[in-house]
Amino acid sequence: LHHAFPPVGAGSGRKVRELLIRMAELPDIQVDFVTISDQPVYQSRTFGDRITTHHLNVYKTGASRLTAAELFEYQAKSFIFTLRTARKIDYSLIHALGSFPECFTAYAFRGRFPYVLSRLPEDQAVADGMTGGHAEGLNSLVREFARAAARVFDHRRETSALDPARAAAAYGAAYRELLSRRKIRSRRRPTSR
């Protein structure tokens, strides 16, 4: 999940695109990537054989950044999209690239799928742009999202501010580790008393 993706996204959107290209090179990873559309309709596109991008019809009004209303609309639509597709596809995990608004959807499904949270530099910029109790409330949510995540990446420290090759390798390793833990748990028989 990430709301910025070319041609809609600027800096982070281009880096996310590069990241998906690198992840397409990983032979054991399959991705359904949920983002916004540059058109007022839903679109689906593919990267190679294993990555599908789902562009939700949250039409950007033209400002360089998404408005609060557009972010809220994306959050609601990404939740509904995930709810519908999770009925058909047994996802192994959810990856939220950024805390807001992506983590709301990942957090909502935490009982069904483990989720990975990537804290991006713009997460702090969102909090910095708020005033008074709003910033503290947002920071409290970020702490809860991080606490509940199966794995948290901090891009300022771990992946060279989203260097695509390094990030894809780190994500691939984390996915494999989480999936192996999930398979081990699912093989265990429930104990009866």
Distance between the termini: 41 Å
Radius of gyration: 17 Å
Order of adjacent strands in the largest pleated sheet? 1-3-2
State the low-pLDDT regions, or none.
Answer: 184-193
Secondary structure topology:
Blueprint lengths: L10 H13 L7 E6 L6 E5 L3 E6 L11 H21 L5 E4 L4 H7 L6 E5 L1 H8 L4 H16 L2 E4 L9 H24 L6
Parallel strand pairs: 1-3, 4-5, 5-6
Antiparallel strand pairs: 2-3
Helix pairs in contact: 1-6, 2-3
Structure explained in plain terms:
The chain has 193 residues and is an alpha/beta fold. The protein is 46% helix and 16% strand. The chain has helices at residues 11-23, 68-88, 102-108, 121-128, 133-148, 164-187, and strands spanning 31-36, 43-47, 51-56, 94-97, 115-119, 151-154. Strand 4 (94-97), helix 3 and strand 5 form a beta-alpha-beta unit. Helix 1 (11-23) crosses helix 6 (164-187) and helix 2 packs parallel to helix 3 (102-108). Mean pLDDT is 76; it is low at 184-193.
Short note summarizing the structure:
The protein is α/β, with parallel strands linked by helices and 193 residues long.
List keywords for this structure.
193 residues; alpha/beta; 3-stranded mixed β-sheet; 3-stranded parallel β-sheet; 6 strands; 46% helix; globular; disordered C terminus
